[in-house]
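Subgroup meeting minutes
Present: P.N., E.W., G.H.
Scribe: E.W.

1. P.N. recapped why we're keeping a running log of single-chain structure predictions: easier to compare across weeks, and new members can see raw inputs and outputs side by side.
2. G.H. added today's entry (260 aa).
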Amino acid sequence: MRTYCFALRGSAAALAVVVAAGASQAAEFPAQVFSITALRTDTNESYTWTRTLAPEDFVNETTYHWKLAADIELRDPNTNTLLGTLEGGASSATGVRYEADPVVALSFNVVAGAAPTIFLIASGPLGFAPIFPAIGRASAGMTATDLNGDGVTATGMFPGVKSYEAEFNGPPLVGTPFADLVGPLAAGFFSTDTDSEDFPAVGFAPIGPPVSSMSAVFWFTLSAFDSAAGTSVWVVIPTPGAGVLLLGAAGIMGLRRRRA
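Output recorded in log:
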C-alpha cells in the first residue's frame, strides 16, 4: 500500500451494489462516483466536493454516466477563499462514466484560484467479479491554458511527474498502479500546451494478479488563474487464449464480454 500526504476525504471505498439483470457481469458501482479536492499551496486552504451515486445517471443496467451541469466554486469552508472552479455545462467535459465490462472514463475542466493550486480529481472504485488472467489499457490527455498573460504550468504529482494514474484493486491512491500517464505541461503568455499518453502504446498489457476493482485519478499542480482540462479511459478485459492473441488488438477488442 502506498502512503501519500495528500489524501481523499471521506470514504471512497464505500460501494453501492448494482446487479445487471441477465448480464454477463455484475458490477459494484461506487457510492461516491466523483470527487475533487483543491489545495492552495501557499496557505494550505482546501476544499473537497463529491458527487454521490444517483439513479437518474444510469444509462442502462450496465452503464453509469454523470456529467456536471453547472460550474462549482471550490471555497475553503473556514475562510471562504475561492481556491478554484470546477467547470460544468454543455462546453465542459467534467464527469465520469462507468461500464460494467469494466471501463472507467474520468474527465474534468478546472480553473485555479489566486495561487498555484493542487487538484486531486478521482473516480470511485468500480467493483466486479475477479478477472484472471487479465490485461488492461489506459489512455489520458490533458490541456493547460494561460488565462492571464503570465504563462501556465501543470505539473503532475505521480511518479515521473505524471498527472494521471490508472489503478486496480483498491480505492484512489490506495489501489495498485497500472499506469502513470501525461507529463508536465508549460506554455507562454496566452498560450496552450497539450499532452496525451497511452499504456501500452499498442494493444493491451498483462496485469498479473486477479483484478476485482479499478479507479482513475488526476493529481497535479496548476499555476494561478489558469485552466486545465483532462480526459481518460481505463479498461480491463480477460486475457484471450493463445490462438486469439494472433488476431491482434482489433480482434481482442471484439472479444470483450458482451453487455446485456
